[in-house]
Design a protein that fits this description.
alpha+beta, two-stranded parallel ribbon, 5 helices
């Protein structure tokens, strides 16, 4: 079972946490997160989103990330969503940097 995904992921960074005996602790974490054996051995694809509730323009980004994840799954990848920082005009309005 340990080298099951080695052909598919031989050059992908996610092989370091999903393929081989040394990655057993990592795989147990993924199982605990609800991933199946098949999903663990597929390529992991990061889906970045700046979704948040601080401005109307960011509210729909969570739904867009879900649509991207569906597309990744359809192409036999395993999507892993993560968030990142965003600037919100409504909060930054009037800030010195906006007056430049």
């Amino acid at each position: 079972m340990g080298d099951k995904g080695s052909n598919i992921k031989s050059k992908l960074p996610s092989r370091h946490v999903s393929v081989g005996p040394k990655s057993a602790p990592h795989r147990s974490m993924y199982y605990a997160m609800g991933l199946t054996e098949e999903e663990i051995y597929q390529p992991f694809i990061g889906v970045a989103t700046t979704w948040n509730e601080s401005a109307p323009c960011n509210i729909t980004l969570g739904r867009q990330a879900q649509a991207v994840k569906i597309g990744v799954k359809e192409k036999l990848g395993t999507p892993r969503e993560f968030t990142t920082i965003t600037v919100t005009d409504g909060i930054a309005m009037g800030h010195e940097a906006m007056k430049a």
